[in-house]
Automatic annotation (TrEMBL):
This is DUF2627 domain-containing protein. InterPro entries: Uncharacterised_YqzF (IPR020138). The lineage of its organism: Bacteria, Bacillati, Bacillota, Bacilli, Bacillales. Keywords: Membrane, Transmembrane, Transmembrane helix. The chain crosses the membrane at residues 44-63. It comes from the Bacteria.
Length: 78
């Protein structure tokens, strides 16, 4: 049950990061998607989605490894 919840928690930011890459790619080729008025806002939104998704997944993995003492000494609690 807990693995399923963890998977669902990571699935949403992962999809968001993938959508961010798609938005940035589309704006590079001049394709404007409906919720955005132009390529510049689409690029900024795509970058924000991508960064948020990567940071969330990375933070989740770091927190899990920190709980299991699988990080370097400088990251362990004192």
């Amino acid at each position: 049950m807990m693995r399923t919840v963890a998977f669902l928690i990571l699935l949403v930011p992962g999809i968001l990061a993938a959508w961010g890459v798609k938005l940035m790619r589309d704006s590079l080729f001049g394709i404007v998607n409906p919720p955005f008025p132009g390529t510049a806002p689409q690029t900024i939104a795509g970058l924000l989605f991508f960064v948020f998704g990567i940071f969330f997944v990375g933070g989740f993995i770091f927190h899990r490894d920190k709980k299991r003492n699988k990080v370097q000494k400088r990251f362990k609690k004192r």
